[in-house]
Amino acid sequence: MLNTKLKVGDKIFFSGTIYTARDQAHKRLAEAIKKGRRFPIDLKGAIIYYCGPTKTPKGKIIGSCGPTTSSRMDEFTPILLKAGVAGMIGKGSRSQEVIRAIKKYKAVYFLTHAGCGALLSKYVKKVKPVAYKDLGPEAIYQLEVKDFPLIVGIDARGNSIYKEASTKIK
Amino acid sequence: MRIISAIKIRDAVNDLCLRANLFLKEDILAALKAAYLNEANKKAKDILQAIIKNALIAKREKLAICQDTGLPCVFVEIGENVKISGDLKKAINKGVELGYKKGFFRNSVIKDPLSRGKPGYQPAIIHIDIVKGNKIKLTVLPKGFGCENKVQLRMFKPTASIVEIKKFIVQTIKDAGPDACPPYVVGVGIGGTADYACFLAKKALLKNIVHSSGFIVHRLERELLKEINKLNIGPMGLGGKTTALAVNIETYPTHIAGLPVCVNISCHALRSASEII
């Protein structure tokens, strides 16, 4: 797995498949896992993007699609990691529990350009809604991305970029 | 009496929603460019550059600056010599819906905070004020919730010092940390009642970030900005000199027993647009 090679602060350009999921989709996925129900996407090795895009303007592949605040997903993240999620993309800090789970499951947390949804839409090549369509912008979309810009926020060893940034304050 | 039709108001709100969400305000863009030049940190520079590029792409391609096109807040100042023909609130909400649909913006509004339900476009949060004159001023502020979630209110004792108040404001920014899309614009409401201080803090975000205010307030704004920018949160929270672009303070008379202070944070994509009819 590529995860263990990535170090906190690394800047990478990702090409491949990612799945959007934010608050309500997380709640549903976590519930499905807990109750042993089937869930709509294969979480093994999946990369989850905390994102709820705008509607798609005519002639575009996707609308504005930047990251939402990751910490709101914290309570669900360890369950998803246990189910096989390999990485998450979002913005902002994570809880200690999430950092511990990332370390335990050798996952990785990426940051991407916060508040730059128009810019990030340029890296999305294909979009397909795959689950929870009733949630509208909170549905799960499968995105094919090319050279999507990411910064490693928490690596598989549990090192966090924000801890480093904040220690400089003192 | 001047008669203004609700349809005119609807159409103006429609336009303002589009303008606010597609075109980053000139003062914000200028502040971001200045911050880019001022930063020495390479990471911070790169991130600011992406933010500036994002604004240019949004404008050129008519894409929302941010996918969180917010909970639309609409501020209405109605001249007392104006009579509106039609339903004002309906017109505003309809204008919001039309503008958001036209711009392919996000339907982020749910009808019930507890049962949630399917997201739609309205209602907007509407603030109405009666002022002198025979015109109507409309302002649309699409407020993203990544930053709205970081609002804090504290009811200080009337004997509290400026130092304590400053500490609370700076701590609010520290608590928001990297989560609410820094660099921030900080709106502060001081005075009034608890609810009014919150309103003032939001209203402070409408001011051009290069503005003039009274001497004491202006000094406080400057000092706070300096202190906040020492926090080294920086663009995207990765460190740097630019944690906030500006601090705007609005004040109002208050009660002898109190001193309410509310801090409302805006992400770097502070969007608003105004029109006078």
How would you describe this protein?
The complex is a heterodimer of chains A (about 170) and B (about 280). Chain A has a single domain (about 1-165), classed as Fe-S hydro-lyase, tartrate dehydratase beta-type, catalytic domain (fumarase, Alpha-Beta Barrel), CATH 3.20.130.10. Chain A is α/β, with parallel strands linked by helices. Chain A is built from 5 helices and 6 strands; from the N terminus they run E-H-E-H-E-H-E-H-E-E-H. The longest helix of chain A has 12 residues, at about 25-35. Chain A is globular and about 45 Å long. Chain A has helices at about 25-35, 75-80, 95-105, 115-120, 160-165, and strands at about 10-20, 45-50, 85-90, 110, 125-130, 140-155. In chain A, about 50% of the residues are buried. Chain B is α/β, with parallel strands linked by helices. Chain B folds into 2 domains: about 1-25 and about 65-145, no CATH class; about 145-270, no CATH class. Chain B contains 8 helices and 10 strands. Chain B has helices spanning about 5-20, 25-40, 40-60, 90-100, 145-150, 160-175, 195-205, 215-230; strands spanning about 1-5, 70-80, 80-85, 125-130, 135-145, 150-155, 185-190, 245-255, 260-265, 275. In chain B, the strands form 3 sheets. A 4-stranded mixed sheet of chain B has the order 4-2-5-10. In chain B, helix 1 packs parallel to helix 4, helix 2 (about 25-40) packs antiparallel against helix 3 (about 40-60) and helix 6 (about 160-175) packs across helix 8 (about 215-230). The two termini of chain B are about 15 Å apart. The model of chain B has no long low-confidence stretch (mean pLDDT about 95). The interface between A and B is large, with 44 and 45 residues.
Keywords:
heterodimer, A: 170 residues, alpha/beta, fumarase, five-stranded mixed barrel, globular, B: 277 residues, 2 domains, four-stranded mixed sheet, 25% strand
Which helices and strands, and how do they pair?
The complex is a heterodimer of chains A (170) and B (277).
Chain A: E1 11-20, H1 23-34, E2 47-49, H2 77-82, E3 87-90, H3 96-104, E4 108-111, H4 117-121, E5 124-131, E6 140-154, H5 161-167
Parallel strand pairs in A: 1-2, 2-3, 3-4
Antiparallel strand pairs in A: 1-6, 4-6, 5-6
Chain B: E1 2-5, H1 6-22, H2 26-38, H3 42-61, E2 71-79, E3 82-85, H4 88-102, E4 125-131, E5 136-143, H5 145-148, E6 152-156, H6 162-176, E7 184-192, H7 194-204, H8 215-228, E8 244-254, E9 259-266, E10 273-276
Parallel strand pairs in B: 1-3, 2-4, 7-8
Antiparallel strand pairs in B: 2-5, 5-10, 6-9, 7-9
Helix pairs in contact in B: 1-4, 2-3, 6-8
